[in-house]
Amino acid sequence: MVDGMGQREWLQAALLDDPEFLRGLVERAVQSILDEEMTAHLGAERYERSGERRGYRNGYKPRTLTTRVGTLELAVPQDRDGTFSTELFSRYQRTEQALVLTLMEMYVQGVSTRKVATITEQLCGVRFSKSQVSALAGRLDSELAAWRERTLTASGYPYVWVDARYEHVRVDGRVVSQGVLLVSGLRGDDGRREILGVAVADTESEASYQELFRSLKARGLTGVRLVVSDDHAGLRQAIHRHFQGAGWQRCQVHVTRNLLGQVAKAKRAEVAAGLREVFAAPTRTQALAVARRLAGQWRTSHPRVADVLEEELEDCLSCLAFPSEHQLRIRTTNSMERLSQELKRRTRVVRIFPNREACLRLVTALAAEQSDEWGSGRRYLDVTLLTEVHHEMLLPLAAAD
């Protein structure tokens, strides 16, 4: 009782009006637990002479503990042999690790560091600065770098898909566009897909792709029979240099989109129907015959469309040299569409990455997550069809110097 206050009034004042009351109460309770743990560890009270004593105290070590009632200032008892380890802090360490991982996961989910700081304050009662959250997120770097540089262990990757997207990144005080390069492959061992490579480059140039492909081959990329990608000049040149002997499949979806963009809206359905007829042909000869017929029909009104149909569709038909059961999935880069959608959904929240490293961190984390999902999921293609039916045409690659 204080100054004649009743019990109810005193409790109300202590619990509601004094923000330090609960913190002090919990601090004393936790300190008492630490001292009792040391007594149990040594088998004796302070200054107690006992034949069961297993050691001696050796002062205290300061330690802070963040709780819902505030930050506690504690003195952790030490023993001379350094064998004492409190279960309290073991539990706290696990909680701390969970909190750090939550912060990292929030960052990976595309929440900006400033928003993370606000959310963690509301959830945990602790204010994390923007720099602290960025530092915590940065701890992912070593783990993600190890994933990017891991050895590719499959016996071969007969199909490889290459795709790219662009993100806005702040570099030297300016917001610039950076190319995010993604490479996935079909494992020849089990027919499942795997994200093989991730890179962030200044431009989507031949040099950028050359560096990426060189790294992939050094890590163990072998047995490539077909590379599927868009018709980017630098990418196409890098593919021909590093995967000699492999076929190149130009993405049919990208070709269709590009061609439809060259005709009026009223003509697009007709052009799309013609392209579907070409791509549905069972053999290259039949497909090219259909393309030539369509080119003749469009020559007068749309000469550019006719040129594409006559000269640029052959690279879209490389998939026809492979098992028919595989063709639907190797004729486009749609196998990476879900990953691209996830990247877009997450990066839309961030909008502008603070630096190239942050962009690479988020993209790598998402790619690793997707690769794990693919690796533990259903088989994507039956690779036995490839080895049995097309063994005679799958000669070893002569890698470029």
Describe the structure.
- This protein is an alpha/beta fold and 401 residues long.
- The chain has two domains: 1-85, no CATH class; 156-393.
- It is built from 16 helices and eight strands.
- The strands form two sheets. Strands 3, 4, 5, 6, 7 and 8 form a six-stranded mixed sheet that branches. It has a two-stranded antiparallel sheet with strand order 1-2.
- Strand 4 and strand 5 (193-201) form a beta hairpin.
- Helix 9 (252-260) packs antiparallel against helix 10 and helix 14 (337-350) runs antiparallel to helix 15.
Q: What is the structure about, briefly put?
A:
The chain has 401 residues and is α/β, with parallel strands linked by helices. It is 52% helix and 16% strand.
Q: What general outline do the C-alpha atoms trace? A: elongated
Give the C-alpha Rg.
31 Å
Which consecutive residue ranges, at least 5 long each, have pLDDT under 50? 391-401
Characterize the biggest β-sheet.
6 strands, mixed
Mean pLDDT metric: 84
In terms of quaternary structure, the protein is single chain
Overall number of structural domains: 2
Tell me the span between the first and last alpha carbons: 88 Å
Helix content: 40-55%
Beta-strand proportion: 15-25%
Count the E strands. 8
Counting DSSP H or I runs of 4 or more residues, the number of helices is 16
**Helix-strand category:** alpha/beta
Order of helices and strands: HHEEHHHHEEEHEHEHHHHHHEHH
